[in-house]
Amino acid sequence: MTQENRPNSHVPIITLSAITKTYGQGQAAFQALGGVDLSVQQGEFVAIMGPSGSGKSTAMNILGCLDTPTSGAYIFDGQHVENLTRDQRALLRRDYLGFVFQGFNLLARTSALENVELPLLYRGESVEARHRMAKAALKSVGLDGWEHHTSSELSGGQQQRVAIARAIVTNPKVLLADEPTGNLDSKRGHEIMDLLVGMNRDLGITILMVTHEPDIAAYAGRIVHFVDGHVESDTSNSKTKSATD
Amino acid sequence: MGWTTLLLALREIRRNLMRSFLTVLGIVIGVAAVVTMVTLGNGATQSVSDQISSLGSNLLMLRPGQRMGPGSSSAGAPNFKIEDVEAIKSQIGQLAAVAPSVSRSAVLVVGTRNWMSSITGTDSEYFAAGNWTLAEGRAFFVSEERAGKAVCVIGATVQKELFGERSPVGEEMRIKNFSCEVIGVLAAKGQSGMGRDQDDTVLMPLRAVQRRLTGKQDVSMILISMADGASSEQVVADINSLMRERRKLADNEDDNFNVMDTKEIAKTLSGAIGTMTALLGAVAAVSLLVGGIGIMNIMLVSVTERTREIGIRLAIGALEKEVLMQFLTEAVALSAFGGLIGILLAVLACYGLSSLIDIPFAFDPGINLLAFGFSAAIGVIFGYVPARRAAQLDPIEALRHE
Questions:
Q1: Domains of chain A
Q2: Mean pLDDT score, B356-378
Q3: Is B101 left (phi over 0), alpha (psi -120 to 50) or beta?
Q4: Is the entire prediction scored with pTM above 0.90?
Q5: B17 at interface of A, judged by CB pairs closer than 8 A
Q6: Where are the domains of chain B?
Q7: Which of A151, A199, B9, B149 is in Cβ range 3.0-4.6 Å of B329 for a Cys bridge?
């Protein structure tokens, strides 16, 4: 898996400016995001923290192009995406984004290999290419030899590895991880974090990760705190935990 | 993508094999019922037209009395004479054979066996008109017809009942108080369309029957076989006007004779069977509709069950139409499978039933293809709503679904 995602410090890959998101209308309206400005350089590893209801999940959904902002501008890799249609956003996710969820979200009763092949299927890759790329991705997360096990035959940590393999098999520019260690014990959680740090460092994949655990956030190079729909603090993390490899 | 979608759909069906089977049961029963009804109906139609054509091709039957039906009566209508037969032969064109016929029932005796049968007096043209062939022996000589000699040609049933396996040609058979020489045996024809055994018959020269059995010069029916390509309307019209003239009917009098066209009877019977078939097929088609609703029901359940899966697919970049196609393909694959199983069942059922109720097994690829296409179409129609529901799910909501 070779990739030329060289960090470019001048043009950010993600720029949010004055993003708001309001649910409901009139009296019942609830503002989840009240003007968020954020820019992320290519190759960064950003942890997004904050209490429940702080808007971090809403921000993640907008960043992941799963949702659209009520107002404001979102520029992804030089392209305005705030007004894209549903299908245009789907194509953007397909080509540039990878997702890792708290609940793994693997297809049930489906082998690890088939799970990892899923995004390639929608990209129209041939059967041979799908097999080759999915096998390589599984190998890169340390699941060599587990290709034909179904989700229920894998441990939580292994399932999350499969999910990471599925997210990176398409060589995405940005990986969005929503509490990737939330369902794992601390040992497995740290293993997963080591894996993500490795992906960020070796493949140059930009990672945005939501977490509420400070010791997980500590792996990131930058920590953004959300409170009440605003960015409360945005600090770079000088003493980044290093990957144990 | 198309091929992959199909493979995905098949995998999903295999994963829930029992449920998939129960889902398509409605389609299976619907298709099986429609195809069985139509195939058996076609067999019955074919059997009727076969039997009618065994009566004789292009055959008209001229009888005294008004056309059969409610309120008609043959009382008082005079019988025909042999001169009428001669007049038809000489004055009407486009005919292949014209034969007089007069029948009486009588007990036949050979040795110790006896058998009640119908004895028909006629001439040698009867064989051509009635589509009869001889299995054995010969037809009447003209000299025998003229002399009214006591010779007879017997049907296959009569042969079996009176002579068994032995050849009857040259044997003597007693009819009432006279004795008659068997000169031939008719080839078997089987049941007629009206359920009568056509082979239970004895043919004798017309004069022999008139003299020895009826005692009158009457001819009770004239069989008229038209030449190939003859217009039956024209021939019937010609016969009508000829008979009205010969029977001296005034313009204001009704016909006291009628002409029956076997082709018309065949057409009427086939039409009636066709209507019945269509009716039964339509009733069966209702179960297809019910089957379609069953598929929609299960597909809706399946979409709800697989909400998370749909969320994952949408999140990693599946387009709306790709998710739509996936579920639609699943519905169509299900219903098409149901259709195939239904057709298989129908073929088996028709094979068994057609021999049971004694009609030919008329396999019609058209109805089978139509039923298959229809079941696939049901998949599209009833799969669309659930598939669209799946495609329009919000990925965020769908991923959160437990």
A1: 14-236 (3.40.50.300)
A2: 87
A3: beta
A4: no
A5: no
A6: 2-51+267-400, 78-255
A7: B9
